Amino acid sequence: MGLSKTIWAQPCEHLRFADPEHPVLYFSPAALQAAARRFLDGFPGLVTFAVKSNPEEAVIQNLDAAGIRGYDVASIPEIELIRRIAPGAALHYNNPVRSRAEIRRGAELGVRSWSLDSRSELDKLADLVSPKGHEVSVRFKLPVKGAAYDFGAKFGATAELAAELLARAATLGFIPSLTFHPGTQCTDPMAWDAYIRAAARIAAAAGVGIARLNVGGGFPSHRNAGMAPPLEAIFALIDRVTAEAFGSARPALVCEPGRGLVADAFALATRVRAVRDGGHLFLNDGIYGGLAELPLIGLVDRIEVRDADLRPRSGAREGRVVFGPTCDSVDRLPGQVPLPADIAEGDFVIWHGMGAYCTVTNTRFNGFGDMEIATVLRLAD
Ligand SMILES: *Cc1c(COP(=O)(O)O)cnc(C)c1O
């Protein structure tokens, strides 16, 4: 993967020039900075970026330039990346399971905020870090739906355990806070409503005034052409429900979007390698590459198709079976992909909204996985 220095007007200009056989990811710094400003202007608290969704250096540089001052990190390499590119930024080490070596190194590198969801991890942290000036953010979960998949399946204490951990963290002298993650691509704002009210009950049960409430990531990106993500409505709901639930004990708010910040700043151009007898399509990218997320959270329908001369294909959309380039039979996109009926070998299929969980999940399986990143002024004509 490489980032070229040239800046192209839009993806088609580069596609015409390069005629690429490999997938190309187009990055618009302007779109990323606009998304950052939308969060910074609208979210009623500190906006941090979930680094795992896209750790490209150019992404971190542009978020830093746009004014993002905190990062949700889950490993020492992510911490080192942020230290190098945005040295003054706050580091929230929000992987609830850490080795002792990772805790020591994290503290050395300046981590002052740690999330956890178990007694054993609180004990470990208290052994290694002197509590003064360090925040413990207890992660809890609820059985609520609304997201594309359920993050509570792996992490998060029950409300009872969260209250116990919060009280112990406060007694030990840590700055007590709470955190949750409603699940990625969460299009139902009521998930935040339920979690924020539960946080207030947990704090009351623990008898602890919390310093901060981190309302997670999960903010939706634009995956369905007909449904723009209702970010401002979600921000307003978070603000209102926090006031209602906590009253005069209102904590400072933190959010940690990955997808919601970065997804719409990238488009992925793939190419039709073959149209097989019977109409099945083979693309030059699939589930082992930049399209890894589609089987997990469903298709994006913001798909643009152009012929080899970059003219838009305008045939009526019909569902097609689409395979990736590897010889593995699971390398198939979910269901049937709505594509113009006149799509042909050599055409470009451009997927919009692909900036999250796309670069990082790209593998070299079967010798594929060459992926270029090109910078563009804008993502559409
Ligand atoms: C992955 C993750 C995020 C980002 O999630 P998005 O759905 O991409 O916004 C935020 N917080 C935590 C703890 C995560 O694990």
Low-confidence stretches: none
From the N-terminal CA to the C-terminal CA, the straight-line distance is 25 Å
Structural class: alpha/beta
The second-level CATH architecture of the largest domain is Alpha-Beta Barrel
Count of alpha/pi helices: 11
Cα shape = elongated
Classified in CATH, the superfamily of the largest domain is Alanine racemase
The figure for the number of domains is: 2
Strand content: 15-25%
Which series of helices and strands comes N to C? EHEHEHEHEHEHEHEHEHEHEEHEEEEEE
CATH topology of the largest domain: TIM Barrel
Give the helix level as a range of percent.
25-40%
Write down the CATH class of the largest domain: Alpha Beta
Characterization of this structure:
By secondary structure, this protein is of the alpha/beta class. The chain has 2 domains: 3-27 and 263-376, Beta Barrel (Lyase, Ornithine Decarboxylase, Chain A, domain 1); 30-262, Alanine racemase (TIM Barrel), CATH 3.20.20.10. Helix content is 30%, strand content 22%. The chain contains 11 helices and 18 strands. Strands 1, 2, 11, 12, 13, 15, 17 and 18 form an 8-stranded mixed sheet that branches. Strands 3-4-5-6-7-8-9-10 form an 8-stranded parallel barrel. A two-stranded antiparallel sheet has the order 14-16. α7 links the parallel β7 and β8. α7 (159-172) packs across α8. The longest helix is centred in the middle third of the chain and has 17 residues, at 190-206. Bound molecules: pyridoxal-5'-phosphate.
